[in-house]
Specification:
Length: about 210
């Protein structure tokens, strides 16, 4: 997750290294500066970049990109690696081996919260109160039809927001609980929260 306008540069850098499956998406990051928040500037434009690579090569490339784009500096962005269980749709990735790696300690997790449009700020605020250091907001649309699709009693329809929060594993349960209580996630139609392990994390998470 980088500042707006840098996603294309990172994508080009990945392509230069022959990395496939690179996608750039617009996103918004939360602003922790209290003065800017009082002025109504609670979000800042970001670029979200997805890339797929084999584990061993990713372990080399990701730190290089973190250094190149100075993500270890404050307010520059974050980067993290997620394990995947399958690759489909890209012929250049067909030879990639997807193997489950066991025995590694999980130190970080990413929390995804899907809510109706307008709920993202409440997610960010409640997560922050529970110890999170910010989040990234994606806006999208689901399927629009008379017969709205239901998943776990949650309607998938237009105007949804997805909030991604990266947090130390020991804080995840309290953050999830805070979000759930604030937005009444346990009630039908109020949202979905899911958590994924992070294989490696860089950038904002390293700041003290």
């Amino acid at each position: 997750v980088l500042n707006h306008g840098e996603g294309a540069d990172l994508s080009a850098a990945f392509h230069h290294e022959h990395v496939s499956g690179v996608t750039v998406m617009p996103a918004k990051g939360s602003i922790s500066n209290s003065f800017l928040a009082k002025l109504g500037m609670r979000e800042i434009r970001k670029d979200l970049v997805f890339a797929i690579e084999e584990r061993e090569r990713a372990r080399v490339l990701l730190p290089q990109m973190v250094e190149r784009f100075k993500l270890v500096k404050k307010n520059r962005g974050i980067a993290y690696a997620l394990p995947i269980t399958g690759i489909y749709g890209s012929h250049t990735l067909n030879e990639c081996k997807v193997e489950k790696e066991e025995g590694e300690d999980i130190m970080w997790q990413v929390i995804y919260t899907v809510v109706d449009k307008g709920g993202a700020n409440a997610v960010i605020e409640s997560a922050g109160a529970a110890g999170a250091r910010g989040g990234t907001i994606l806006r999208g649309r689901g399927s629009a039809s008379r017969n709205t699709t239901m998943i776990f009693d949650f309607p998938i329809e237009p105007e949804k927001e997805v909030v991604m929060v990266l947090a130390p594993q020991e804080k995840v349960q309290s953050i999830v609980g805070a979000i759930s209580n604030k937005l009444h996630i346990d009630e039908p139609g109020h949202g979905i929260i899911f958590v994924q392990d992070v294989a490696a994390a860089y950038g904002l998470v390293e700041q003290k």
